[in-house]
Every structure is written in C-alpha cells, then in structure tokens.
Amino acid sequence: MKTLLTTIVCSLVFALVSLAQSPPPAQSPPTVPGMSPGVQAPAAGVPGQSPVASVPPGQQPAVPGATAAVALSPAPVGAQSPVTAAATSPSPAASPTSEAPTGGFLSGNWLIDKFHRGGPVMWPILIVSIIALTVVIERCIWWTGRWFRRDPKRIEKVFTAIENGDTAEASRLSRGSRDPVLRMMWNGLNHQHASLQGALQVAAGIEIKRAGRFLVVMDTLVTLAPLLGLLGTVTGLIRSFSFLGNEELAVQAVTGGIAEALIATACGLGIAIFSLIPFNFFTSRVSNLEFELQTAATNLEVMLEAQHKEREGVTIESGTPSSATRSSI
C-alpha cells in the first residue's frame, strides 16, 4: 500500500509539472546578414522584374497614358540611391539579438514561477498539499476496497443460521470474511458465552477506527491551510509596506508584495476547499458504517437472546415432573 501511494503521488506531481510547462516562444524566420526584410522581398521576385530596371541609363521609360516627359539627370558619382543605401545599411532586424538566458527546465515553468512568487510561506503550503493529496488517495482506495468487500448475502445467511439455532454454522460462515460487519459478528459469536455485548463493542470499535483513520489529519489540514494562506498575506503586505520609503523601487516592490500575498492566500484556500469535500464525504461514510455495525450487533444480540431463552424454556419443561409421577408419590 505504501509503495502504491508513493507511486501515485510521484505520478501526479510529474503530471502537474508537465502540464504547467509554458509553451516555447515563437521564433522569427531567419534573416540574411546585412539585408533588411524590406529588401529581401523584392529579391525573391527576380522573374517578375519591373520595367524600370530594364531601361538603359539616361532614357525615360515609356509609360502608357503619360503625357508629360520627365528628364533624367545623371546621378553624381559616389551618390547612392535610397534603395541601395537601404540594402547596404545594417537593419535593426539583422543585428545580433541578445538571447534570453535559459535557466533549465524550471525557468519556464508557470507553476514553479508562481510558487517562487508566493514567498517562503509556500513551502509549508506545499507540504500541506502533498499530505492532503496522499490522505485523499489513500482513503479513496480504502473505501473502494470496502465497497468490493461488502457481502450482504452472507450476512443474511448468518442471520438465517442463527434463527435456526445453528450458531456453529453461523460462525463458520462469518469466519475469514473481509466485511467489517461479518468480522464483528464472528467475534461476537466466538465470545457469546463470556461477554457477547463486550465482544461486539470491541470489534465494532476496531472497525470504526479503521474507517476513520486520517480523518483527524484531514480536519487539521482543512483548518491549517487557510491560516497559512493568511500568514502569507500578512508577510506579503509587510514586504510591500517596507519598500514605501524608497521612491525608486516603491512601485515594483509593492506590486511584488501584493502578488505574494494573493498567491499565498489563493493556494491556502484552494487546499482547504480540496480537502473539505473529501473530509465531509469520508465522515458520512464512517457514520453509515457505524450505523450498520450497531444494527447488526443489535440484531445478533436479540436473536441469540431469543435462542438462549428458548433453550432455557425447553430445559425447564424437560426437568418438570409429570402429573403421573406426582400422583404416584
């Protein structure tokens, strides 16, 4: 059971960490060094060259519908056109960009980032959350097994055998069962000559204690998690107000402290809500099991007492002298 719980907790933690991984940033298409994006687009379309590039120097291109002639003056030696200057000048996009430092797997994790922003109170909150998750999983597994261990048909057979006066058969039917009700009945049947009621009470107490295991832990976690969140709120506000005297870092520090307070409060409340619902469910299941044990114990006591009175009545009738014997005396 311990190995199973450890495996489940590790799997859930790994799944949460994997799902919380932020997507990688979008990468821009590679650019040719020394070329601006505006120049690359026309270069890709060489087959569709414009008429201006095919006109010899000093001649005016023939434009349909044009009425005014424009004289082209020769360009001075050493002068560059705007397109050529734009092609030869280094563009900002082509400049080497500084890559963001990568801090490994945990640097881009949204969950880990929020955890660090929550402040030092997040460590006890993390411990509380792991304990709560482990307890909930263990109780769910136990109550699922309890559901499959129920055997109401055998309980009816035991009561039928007791009603028929065959307590040996009833003890045989209840022996070796994993149903808590049958285990309690077997304990009572084996100690009916000494103290039936005491044996039933002890067996029922053991079964109720098994069913209510870790409920005190869950109750403590439900109360402790919001208190830890409130403690994180107080520490975050203290950190925020401690930077109010510094005008340069006041805004950034105050917002960071408020974020710490809100993250800690949200985590504490989330753990409390997560633990409260299973706690109430398991408490109701324990109450139902206690009622079943009390009902079965009462029925067993009544039926055994009836059998005992019936045997005493038969013994008294067999020990009473007959009328013929009395007359002969």
Number of strands: 0
Low-confidence stretches: 22-26, 32-56, 60-107, 322-329
- By DSSP (H or I, 4+ residues per run), the number of helices equals 13
Q: Please indicate the percent range of residues in DSSP E strands (runs of 2 or more).
A: under 5%
SSE pattern, N- to C-terminal: HHHHHHHHHHHHH
Descriptive account of the structure:
By secondary structure, the chain is mostly helical. It has a domain at 116-315. It contains 13 helices and no strands. It has helices spanning 2-19, 37-44, 51-54, 82-88, 110-117, 122-149, 152-163, 167-174, 180-190, 192-211, 215-241, 250-319, 323-328. Helix 8 (167-174) packs across helix 9 (180-190), helix 9 (180-190) runs parallel beside helix 12 and helix 11 (215-241) packs antiparallel against helix 12 (250-319). The longest helix is centred in the last third of the chain and has 70 residues, at 250-319. The chain is rod-shaped. The two termini are 76 Å apart. The model is unreliable at 22-26, 32-56, 60-107 and 322-329 (pLDDT under 50).
